[in-house]
């Protein structure tokens, strides 16, 4: 069984989902992000003097086409969730631009953003903390209609009950409270609320990370079915590479506030170009021991912790943990460039491709200790 099939209930369902993804037409650009940054100030003392800043998101460039799913993966603390809150304008960006349907929404105020809330919605990571425990399901899912002044045909109650049916819940759940539901059912309530106003873009922040594996498959399949039925566009943030492989058309890999690789799903899993992406994929478990032995895949163990976003390394931010790092990696930040059709990578020495800096071949690990700051060498072990 493949990694992708792990997220599916049956192999037939997986095959059908693959056909759906392959058949999706390439739409026009719905969302465009350029140079997006978010720096959180760090203050100290009685007068709250700023002594630094957390560079949570530090220069993102990507776009999302109508009807597609963009998956975003990376280690904890790399800025994935902050990015999601920025593009939905739940946080104010420090710099950069966000364009939605060709309109600059980077610094729109609350009043100007209100009409756009119908088109951009978010599914939050924790399905319980994002639901008000004092409100019934009917009040929670019906809140977008009240806030936007929308009166659906047949009334709010009838529309809410229809939405509950769409996400696999019973209309009789209308008068129940969140604590009466399981984790998977609460996530479905959050999905129903996000879909209430027929949005064009849905940002899902770790939509299945808090759920059991069996429930994860149900919610993932639900998101896929809703996209096919309603023509939704997704930005799905996750750390589970199996889930991302199933739901995504294109995948962006983030490291320490930056996108280091962006390409279609098939290219990323079959031919990763950034060393960090290769290390992430090496950690994906293979459930079939015979297949694992046939692949002979080595597990890449990165030494050391992720550097602090308050003081990121110079040059390439991954060079302190990279086994291919050379002198140029410590001095010059690699740009995110297209090395192949549709395949973008920010690396001076990418995998399976010609180096951006072909003349620099001296590894940092080969330099004298005084010439570099303790550059750990990763080891490899067999899975």
UniProtKB/TrEMBL annotation:
Bias (Low complexity) ranges: 371-383
Stated name of the protein: Peptide ABC transporter ATP-binding protein
GO molecular function: ATP binding; ATP hydrolysis activity
All copies of domain ABC transporter, residue ranges: 31-281
Keywords: ATP-binding, Nucleotide-binding, Transport
NCBIfam families: oligo_HPY (TIGR01727), PRK11308.1 (NF008453)
GO biological process assignments: peptide transport; transmembrane transport
Segments for region (Disordered): 1-23, 348-383
Pfam families the record matches: ABC_tran, oligo_HPY
PANTHER family, per database record: D,D-DIPEPTIDE TRANSPORT ATP-BINDING PROTEIN DDPF-RELATED, TRANSPORT ATP-BINDING PROTEIN
Similarity comment: Belongs to the ABC transporter superfamily.
Domain of life: Bacteria
